[in-house]
């Protein structure tokens, strides 16, 4: 059954297949995707306008609240859509499709890489869509280079939370338990990240939790790249995100490897 | 070389022994049926051979690869159709096959050839570009059969391939399985709890009960083990007939019944004429019928119950357990 192209080549074809499946399904689910993006978009519109005159502690006065908020909403959107990769694994299990994947002569590593690649791509597309929608609201990225740097941060945020989603999905047998935990974790993660307001406005104990949250560094990095304002040097944000991404992807891959198909 | 060799295979779930010290082998090109009621351990056995479950004890080799030491080798040599459907309903039939081909590392050129071949084999070429969500149960099953063969496996595992299908579709799917075996030369291992399916399709049948293989032979040999065919003769002179034919070399047994005799013979259809001729010389013959042994009776004689009865204990227990859970 080999095509004489070696093991690595075959694994690459399998990763491509997994990635392509996610994209095809994403494209077929266009209306569902738009529905999912409405939530973050409404927050962007109404918070952006509603709080336009409010002042939030350390936000410099040269920065409008909309400018402060857009990178935060991008991070929130990423969090939201990255959780769907874990959900996809579990719904594959529920409809039996996971067996088709796990009985194939493909290493678990390739399955994990394919899943993360597919999930990261679709998650990024959603974040970029939000970014495009923010432009008519009056949002302007500082530079094209900045957008490029932002894409790097988006990739890191996607990888981090997809890794986390896979790790959690491997602990559940069905989507119900997973959904419960995700719904429980989603908003605290978003509120403790500086996405909507500076962390320094929170009581000290909550700030500590916030600084342990990878999204804090992702959002700050995105803000630095897109509007030129960040609480930390971008290198610090970048380093923190790389560490977070490596750790969660490794954790997700290790736990997913032990998943039994039946 | 045998396609499958199983030696002392055991699989436990905690205290429950689902597969208990099973040994058998399957020749290349053979269709082997694993026949038994739900919960007998057939699916566990198949999942172990497919490397989805690890054996607790014993060894198994599939297409020359050990299921524990070389699961990758096993996986590239087998095709599997699971008991529950395992298709992506949002993709079309062709996209499901394309995804499968990529998982098995098959490149574009050969993928196209193989896809066309297997779609033809199961007569789905015209429906290949519809989403699988719009397929009927029978079409989905056929697509899974096609997919199982796409990467040209040496062994095809079918776990209850016709369960949940209506009688007509069941028959069609059986015909396709026979055709795949004949035309692709693939060795087939299938589990079933339908007697007629095992009888019609399989070269050999393993009767599985309570985690063990209690008998393994060709369907006819299993049935012959019961003592061959019985010719039921309605006659007004049973004693005379018994004297006339009782000593014939092809008569195994003679039993009196209410309106005549049951005569046990080796090959009922071939002997019926001779028996009737001999009987009508000494008495009047009113009715005659040949009763062939069935796998149902084989199963009954080996396990002391019918497959249906064994099946019913399964769901019954489950319902009881659910009721208890509700009370909590």
From TrEMBL, chain A:
The keyword Transmembrane helix applies. It is a multi-pass membrane protein. Its main location: membrane. Pfam families: ABC2_membrane. Keywords: Membrane, Transmembrane, Transmembrane helix. GO terms for molecular function: ABC-type transporter activity. It is found in: Membrane. InterPro entries: ABC2_TM (IPR013525), ABC2_TM_bact-type (IPR047817), ABC_2_transport (IPR000412), Nod_factor_ABC_transporter (IPR051784). PANTHER family: NODULATION PROTEIN J (PTHR43229:SF2). This is Multidrug ABC transporter permease. It comes from Haloarcula pellucida.
UniProtKB/TrEMBL annotation, chain B:
GO terms for biological process: daunorubicin transport; doxorubicin transport. Gene3D superfamilies: P-loop containing nucleotide triphosphate hydrolases. Belongs to the ABC transporter superfamily. Drug exporter-1 (DrugE1) (TC 3.A.1.105) family. Residues 4-235 form the ABC transporter domain. It holds the Pfam family ABC_tran. PANTHER family: ABC TRANSPORTER ATP-BINDING PROTEIN (PTHR42711), ABC TRANSPORTER, ATP-BINDING PROTEIN (PTHR42711:SF18). GO terms for molecular function: ATP binding; ATP hydrolysis activity. This is ABC transporter ATP-binding protein. Coiled coil: none annotated. SMART domains: AAA (SM00382). InterPro entries: AAA+_ATPase, ABC_transporter-like_ATP-bd, ABC_transporter-like_CS, ABC_transporter_ATP-binding, DrrA, P-loop_NTPase. Keywords: ATP-binding, Cell membrane, Membrane, Nucleotide-binding, Translocase, Transport. It is found in: Cell membrane. It comes from the Archaea. It is a peripheral membrane protein. GO terms for cellular component: plasma membrane. The keyword Protein biosynthesis does not apply.
